[in-house]
Write a structure and sequence with these properties.
The longest helix has 15 residues. Strands 1-2-5-6-9-10-11-12 form an 8-stranded parallel beta barrel, surrounded by 9 helices. The chain has one domain: TIM Barrel. The termini are far apart. It is globular. By secondary structure, the chain is of the alpha/beta class. 49% of the residues are buried. The model has no long low-confidence stretch (mean pLDDT 98). It is built from 11 helices and 14 strands. Bound molecules: (5S)-5-amino-3-OXO-hexanoic acid (KMH) and zinc ion (ZN). (5S)-5-amino-3-OXO-hexanoic acid binds next to strand 6. The site of (5S)-5-amino-3-OXO-hexanoic acid has 13 residues, from strand 6.
């Protein structure tokens, strides 16, 4: 019998821009209500970024995070996961500011530096809502999404050792798995491991069944005992996510990684994507994990110990 499936929902992120979908949450109120609805639809974990409420630009401002974190906590029991990736245009200090303030149960941790190409979306002709959008996307042609070994160690020491945060360990290619194995061998990262296979980012591994199998085989060989989840950029969010579930893993959906619900159809909300993957999971005969089950499996410190 498989463990109940942990659905993570990443509600806004820093990849898409407001012109791409009117449903992308931007203000703290929008982010809170999308997160609460996603949790009610079945997400045990909600992965969070902030945006400037005036223009939708990705923001690292801890004051913005502190507007939606308590609001979400007041309305649902979901595990709140604060991004430490932010966006590739933020410094490490900026990226860590919100998590340092909020001391959440969980944070994302990207297991390496890489190219992170959003420029194909900037080159598509469209009516831009805000002046910053095409420049932001096109600038990723010449920006490194940075997490050096020193950055990773600093995040683990500061948030992990200092705040008892556990991590969504995001691996975008097989090389990142070797980095994760290194830190496990040296007991700098300690189990339980929650590994996120990130498929289809331009600069990382492609979004295909073959590449997911390669990631899984590499993780089995290098890491051994771990929990995993699958996210894919774009509509393969649902197909590769389903494959992850069938392989014994968990799944991440949300407008951070994919704006659509089906071919040619924008998702009207994060909750619609959660409801869709939940239907699939349950049709396959698996249970969906509650936040309490996710907390227990991932060894989280609990909401009594967060700073918001
Ligand atoms: N949107 C994902 C591909 C982070 O927040 O640390 C990357 C992500 C990074 O989730
Ligand atoms: Zn993220």
């Amino acid at each position: 019998m498989n463990d109940p499936v942990i659905i993570t929902c990443a509600v806004t992120g820093s990849i898409h821009t407001p012109s791409m979908s009117p449903h992308l949450p931007v203000t703290p109120d929008e982010i809170a209500s999308e997160a609460i609805a996603a949790a009610r639809a079945g997400a045990a974990i909600v992965h969070l970024h902030a945006r400037d409420p005036l223009n939708g630009m990705p923001s690292a401002d801890p004051d913005l995070f502190m507007q939606f974190l308590p609001a979400i906590k007041a309305e649902c029991d979901a595990v709140l996961n604060v991004s430490t990736g932010g966006s590739s245009r933020m410094s490490l200090d900026q990226r860590l500011a919100a998590a340092r303030r909020a001391s959440p149960e969980m944070c994302s941790l990207n297991m390496g530096s890489m190219n992170f190409g959003l420029f194909p979306m900037g080159e598509k002709p469209r009516a831009w809502k805000h002046e910053w959008e095409p420049g932001f996307l096109n600038s990723t042609r010449d920006i490194v999404f940075k997490n050096t070994f020193a950055d990773i160690e600093a995040i683990l020491a500061d948030l992990g050792d200092g705040h008892g945060v556990r991590f969504e360990l995001e691996c975008y290619d097989v090389g990142h798995l070797q980095t994760l194995a290194h830190y496990l061998d040296h007991k700098i990262i300690k189990p339980p491991v929650f590994l996120q296979f990130v498929m289809g980012v331009l600069g990382g591994i492609d979004a295909s069944a073959e590449s997911l199998m390669a990631m899984k085989a590499t993780a089995d060989r290098l890491i051994g005992d771990y929990h995993f989840s699958v996210l894919s950029a774009g509509l393969k969010q649902f197909t590769l996510g389903t494959m992850g579930v069938i392989l014994g893993g968990n799944v991440r959906v949300g407008l951070e990684d994919n704006l659509r619900l089906s071919r040619g159809e924008l998702a009207k909300s994060n909750a619609d994507q959660v409801a869709k993957i939940r239907r699939v999971v349950e049709e396959l005969g698996f249970d969906v994990a509650t936040p309490a089950q996710a907390r227990q499996r991932l060894g989280l410190k609990g909401t009594a110990n967060v700073g918001y």
